[in-house]
Amino acid sequence: MLYCSSILSLRSSYCISFFKFQSKMVGFSMQPYGIQSMLKEGHRHLSGLDEAVIKNIDACKQLAVITRTSLGPNGISISQIILYFFTISLTVDLCMNKMVINHLDKLFVTNDAATIVNELEVQHPAAKLLVLAGKAQQEEIGDGANLTVSFAGELLQNAEELIRMGLHPSEIIVGYTKAINKTIEVLEEMVEKGSENMNVRDKDEVITRMRSSVASKQFGQEEKLCSLIAEACIQVCPKNPANFSVDNVRVAKLLGGGLNNSLVVRGLVLKSDAVGTIKRLENAKVAVFVGGVDTTATETKGTVLIHSADQLENYAKTEEAKVEELIKAVADSGAKVIVSGAAVGEMALHFCERYKLMVLKISSKFELRRFCRTTGAVALLKLSQPNPDDLGYVDSLSVEEIGGARVTVVKNEQGGNSVSTVVLRGSTDSILDDLERAVDDGVNSYKAMCRDSRTVPGAAATEIELAKRLKEFSLKETGLDQYAIAKFAESFEMIPKTLAENAGLNAIEIISSLYAEHASGNTKVGIDLEEGACKDVSTMKIWDLYITKFFALKYAADAACTVLRVDQIIMAKPAGGPRPPAQGAMDED
Amino acid sequence: MSLKVLNPNAEVLNKSHALHMNINAAKGLQDVLKSNLGPKGTIKMLVGGAGDIKLTKDGNTLLKEMQIQSPTAIMIARTAVAQDETSGDGTTSTVIFIGELMKQSERYIDEGMHPRVLVDGFEIAKRATLQFLEKFKTPVVMGDEPDKEILKMVARTALRTKLYESLADQLTDIVVNAVLCIRKPEEPIDLFMVEIMHMRHKFDVDTRLVEGLVLDHGSRHPDMKRRAENCYILTCNVSLEYEKSEVNAGFFYSSAEQREAMVAAERRSVDERVQKIIDLKNKVCADNDSNFAVFNQKGIDPPSLDLLARAGIIALRRAKRRNMERLVLACGGEAVNSVDDLTPDCLGWAGLVNEHVLGEEKYTFVENVKNPHSCTILIKGPNDHTIAQIKDAVRDGLRAVKNTIEDEAIVLGAGAFEVAARQYLVNEVKKTVKGRAQLGVEAFADALLVVPKILAENSGLDTQDVIIELTGEHDKGNVVGLNLHTGEPIDPQLAGIFDNYSVKRQLINSGPVIASQLLLVDEVIRAGRNMRKPS
Among its keywords, does the record have DNA-binding (chain A) (predicted)? Predict the structure, then answer.
């Protein structure tokens, strides 16, 4: 696929222009007129409609082509292997997904647009604007990045047609701005009645809203995944759902088994072993020490001053006594488990064993904080006797061996809304990573629905309705922007078209029958991808979140307008730095 | 070539070559920047060496980022940047004006005129224009209660040239209110008291003014409150962490007890300081449900944070120095440098202290303060380039409002001043000048027209039509500007288009100076050692 190389590796064309340029720089007496003469060598300057606007649109279109094919549940049946700075594409049959290899040689197999655009390292500045819009969507909602990039690409493609018709970009911007405002209006009318009141603790309701988002990442497995995600989310949903934190749903990836072996643990799963010999405890109190479990040390360098052999002997004894005293104090407070945020000293460990304390070491500060949230413990800085209030509680704490890895499972059923973990099982790292991204998207849509639970019909029903309504709107406008609004409306067709194409259906037929249904007033008719027919979404139960659509469309329109607004690009010479090692041909395997 | 004898590697341009190089560079720079001028100007995209994107319409940003190399262009760019530093706006106009002066001169020079004569004419015209500006400006009385409407009109005019219309209108209110908030009677306005903070989320239209302060960090302890109402604020610059002694000290001990004692002693002095703050908190918060927050410029180490958290105090460490100043202005109280003599009078007050987490970034909002003299403009936007664009615009908007308050005068915009000044120069001044300097005055007068010309050009209007119509109206005695939507003359006063007096004055002052200098160059020599490796 040649287009990849054109947007991804502008660097090679940088070099060409750089050499051309140098030949021009003979002496300053011969300076050419214009901007080129004024900038540092290596600069590139593009301006005007043909050079800047159309080229930008071109780059964005190509980016959208890449992401678009993975829109919806049935992704695409080719994969693209994209290497840093140069591109080879193979048509390997790896259904639905894209295979991306980034500059660190890490392999991604995914159809999550956010991942794809992140790892592609897009270089073209205009295409980058689209990537940024996708990223913004990912950060704001956590889902719908694909819709953002693809839709913006489609808008720009249509803008190109308008420019070729003779419209000025500023008129297109005016039209697009009007259109997006109208779209938001219509979108609001499309909201399913009654969906604004939702019980975020009801698993079925949650699954209804989450399904389309998860299905677009893991088609066919969404039932199982949704129920896992919903269960995990509901467990940790606080009293005020708006405060739901994505951080409280953890994912633990364990190699081996399959998706059906995945489960939800109420509590944490730590990927480490216990330090001591005690590996299993139930109903135990926990003391957490951030600073490590060892002898205390001064900030200033300390030296042991010993004058005689007696002192030497005594010193070791006092040291031991001190540690024992501390460990005993912890044991006396009722704690059965010591969790250390730093090193656990040999001597301290010895006394812990003696006092039958289980010892865990969690070196990540954030993981330790999550552990505190799970157990309700207050982290103490120094090893000392904890107050009863500072102790946490676990139902069970056990080291288990799953798929060859030792993990510590911390369960806390009573803790209520603290932390829950989805344990994912899968046969390869790539599958696990992709599952994790699907879970992330699901959790993010749970968060989104906690903020705003309104839904709109899915399966392209909303898009067709928007297209229809906007077309009607454009006919009422009198100025030149009516063309832009009509094109904006047309852009929505991209979604049902892509959905149908990716599912191997006849897109034209589907779209025309969708329009027919919508014209006769059935505003909720969408595509049933399994049967290849048009159906009412309420029978299929495919709903999208209003808020995801809202942000995605808005960011897409913003990005498209920004690209159109730019009429000059000035590029500095790319900063130096080590060149990437020359890549040979792919290894045969 | 005498120079070639001295240094065979030297490059020399003389006489008309030198002059044309300068003129070409000035014209080239004008060409680059002219599409940015005015509300209908287009946006440029700058791509940095690392592939980072910047979108801008601001001449100043553009000149800074463009990495210009031509020596003449650098001189012009420096003048323009100086214009920005003194008056905050008008960079694009400066570059365009200089370019146009050079272009007009070129015509006369090609006809054989000596640059010196032109320069003399420029000088006369410049002085006359400045006098005319004094007469032309509209004085406004600022007093204790400045007229908000006028400030808004000036700010809107400035902002609309940097951002699209609806966003510019929204920011207008924000910048005007921000400047009025920090303004103290009888004192010069210090724009640094407006904190500009950005958060990368939502849309550009969610930008707002926070009466209070927004800090870009949060408390570093998991158990501290995330939200506190009725909060006493202690602003201090006291180190609450153990500091090693300057000299290389060491402890000697011979038993674990002794070591424990050392550990305790090490912490004692820090703990004492923390305790003083806690005592004060207990004193002021004893019989009401208010909260207490400490903003420290120095560090607070984990044990101290822990003590403060247990006492229910929100503590932020390593606040920026300028934020300490702003915090005191926003919340009241005073910044203390020692905890030895803490009294409740040192404390400020805020209605709400709130921590907002955005991904991995934390923000602390200090809001609902009484009678603030410092405020924060919180810029939001979905990506960095939007934020940077708004930031540059806000800065210019603030400067525009400040200038208006300080100048106590404004100038009619939309090209009205330029056309009026040109007519004045041509119809009145020129006749009083004797000799060939007249032509210099004429060149200067025609160069002034470049602003309305380019405004028209950028809006897709016919330049000639517009100029004829505008000058015609002015000759009838009507002061009119250009309506960019229709191309018809309008009264800028009714449309609310006003420019800053100081911007215009600076523009007329600096433009001709640099143009004269460039015109008088008759030899360009490059004879320095070439530091770059030969390619």
Answer: no
